[in-house]
């Protein structure tokens, strides 16, 4: 299993737009075989940081999702929404493998 960690810098004046964007993506990741663990929006502290976590069975499965998402109408619409609203200023992506206890 591989977990993608997305670290966003968002426009704090467009939090409502970013939350809408987040709600668009959760079912899309699941549609392509991932398991979305949610978005995490600012509460206390920095008002321009947001996170997302989702997992795929393997890095290959994640790469397949990325390829298919670029051809999917719903995904393209979500990408366009973020671009139109400019709610995301920047982001970076890291990958982790979970440790879920000894088997």
TrEMBL record:
Record-annotated NIPSNAP domain positions: 8-99
InterPro entries from the UniProt entry: Dimeric_a/b-barrel, NIPSNAP
Domain of life of the source: Bacteria
Name of the protein described by the UniProt record: NIPSNAP family protein
Lineage of the species this protein comes from: Bacteria, Pseudomonadati, Pseudomonadota, Gammaproteobacteria, Alteromonadales
